Amino acid sequence: MVLMKLLDEFHGIRDDPYTYGKKLKAERNRKIIGYFCSYTPEEIIYAAGIHPMRLFGAQGEITLADTHFQAYCCSLVRGALEGALKGKLNFLDGTVFPHTCDSIQRLSDVWRLNTSFGFFADVVLPVKLNSESARRYMTDVLSKFRNNLEKGFGRRIEDQHLRKAIDTYNHIRTYLEQIYSLHSENPHIISGSDVYAIVRASMIMDRDDLLDKLPAVVEGIKRGDTDADNGTKKRILLVGGICNHPDVYRILEKSGGSVIWDDLCTGSRYFSGIIDNSGDPVESLANRYMERPVCPAKHLSVKSRGEHLVNLVKEKEADGVIFLLLKFCDPHAFDYPHMKEYCNRQGIPCMVLEIEDRLPTEGQLLTRFETFMHML
Amino acid sequence: MKDLLIYCLAKAKKAKLGLSKNKGMRDIMTVYYMEAKTARLSRRKVAWITSGGPVEPLIAMDIIPVYPENHGAMIGASKMGAELCEKAEEMGYSRDLCSYARSDISCATVNGGPIGGLPRPDMLVCCNNICGTVLKWYEIQARYFNVPLFILDTPFCHTEYAEEMKRYVKRQIEEYLVFLEDVCGRKLNHATMEKVGRLSVEGQQLWQAVLDTAANRPSPMTAFDAFFHLALIVTLRGTQITVDYYRNLLKTLNDKVEKGIGAVPNERYRLLWDNLPIWYRLRWLSKKFAEHDACLVADTYTTAWCGTLKYMDENKFLDSMAEAYTRIYLNIGIDEMAKTVMDMIDKYHVDGFVMHSNRSCKPYSLGQYDIRRIVQEEKGIPCLVIEADMTDERNFSESQVATRINAFMEMIKERKG
Q1: Which fold has domain B2-189?
Q2: Core-most of A128, A143, B208, B360, by most CB within 10 Å?
Q3: A147 at interface of B, judged by CB pairs closer than 8 A
Q4: How far apart are CA A285 and CA A176, in angstroms?
Q5: ipTM confidence score
Q6: pTM
Q7: Which domains are present in chain A?
């Protein structure tokens, strides 16, 4: 069973990304750049022959980061810094910070002043994404990042490298979307936890290795090679920023639901948007960011996120929406009442789950999910 | 409504400490809010604008600028913050969100607060140089009032104000003017704009001069006075009225300097304040520090409204405005902020640094611990961190703060004698 073996591998990488990073460095002498956000122009990093690796913040006790950040700072930012200060990220050759929210903005400053991973770059993207001047600025910023990488690592990034990178990423994103679609069409065919592990590992793994493996994953899923259970599942759309908790998927399935699509930074926002590879490659990259479903720290229009949510619910035939809010994440917390209102107006049942660092106990969470499933 | 205005202004007056009666401010702010609330009758447009936003084109277009953040401060000073914040929480907004935003959002729906709510906007102007919160806040109000929203996106200057940022912000200034002309259905008079630009620079220079009087020993004013007098440079920057007001104030302060009259009777220790004021405890804090013969001579907050004068050219105002609005104190990296703080420590001869760790303001507060470390290492002065919130008094523990201030002042006394 090729698929089961691959899924084991993905789960392993998802569980322990740092060991994977260390191995990549030790065995293949790869340069690795870490990042925290789906607005990171990975294609440019990849085109430089460097491995872009997403970081999700260390979980567990925070001690060292406490001397830099107050308790009202989100666990992603505090956990990320904790990992860096504890030396868990020493395999990195650099880090890159696209501009998003106020907290990541300050994490970048604190990171620059307190860590030394070699290469460091702020990619100060526009916040508004609905004007021609913002599009031009986006292109300028990405070009600058390309130059900075060239200087930092002493390598040229030619247009042809970027085109190849875009092509690779287009393929990866197409496969990921296909896996989501297969699961959405038939939630029994593969478990939500497995889909989560695949997408998660996609942000960690060497992208060429990944692209070699994804076709077999898709084929395996189509053949029904997994052992997902056959009970009827309520179709759930998961909405929020990052989800660092595979247990959410497992417990939800236990309660009789399944995440059939999401609007998450660590989910569909990562792979949405195929890039037209015919024009100038940097402009093409910029265009994807201008059109992709937005993070609430960015502005497309005052209604874009609500409309996107309702469209997703209709298109994916979701029975209900779960808002996953990370405590102290301002952009999502500001959008929540409005998004909820959108759901109410359309008669879409929804619930909210706020997480600080750890999930509630399994029993508590199961009860909450079960209660919600009964409403659907 | 007038009663409410007077009530609010009386409250604001109560917050003013140390200086003799200043009737001017009360009158100016009364007229300003009355005008704003009756804008429909006078057929003038009302724009809501963020505190760090470029107000000058609004003044030049005869649009009345209204500041939800100033409103938030009034709500805080009137001790109505907790109640309005709770209302926002009932609407689904998390208690962890900015208390200005929470109180304004709920206030708009009930016309509550000290002045019965702000006048309805015809447009919203949001400049994100102070935070990402204003973006979300103004999106919410744009939906609620269903009015056009202009976003001036000022890229964050971690280590530089780069060429591409310059081009982007300049283009947006042009877009901003087009936006205003579209909403108003008339053209901007460039001669008026130039005049307003010059008045704005003059007002900022005078505000800087006012704050600079605190470099004297004893200081004729405290940061608590600055919090009060700040209202005009924020709301009516670019008007003659503001220039006149600060010119008079400067004269009063200079007189005090000449006569050696200090704002704190026995000024012995000089402190620097960081972050927004704790609006609902100004009087208490002022008394607390004065008990220790300590004067808060300066603060990083009120300085922000004249901090980028070095980038402004009064003769090319619109051009230079792009840089000045982008490089304000909150839109720069914490190492540059620490440098600004240390310059102030030297300039105002500061013995100790008081930092308000403000739950409501992440761009201001996250990074404070690093600034504290840098300041302690390089200046060797004691630093105190007070955990609180600018408007939501539920996040303030008087006994805890009192204990910490006492201990901090003991340290300073031991050090200085």
Answers
A1: Rossmann fold (3.40.50)
A2: B360
A3: no
A4: 19
A5: 0.96
A6: 0.95
A7: 18-156 (3.40.50.11890)
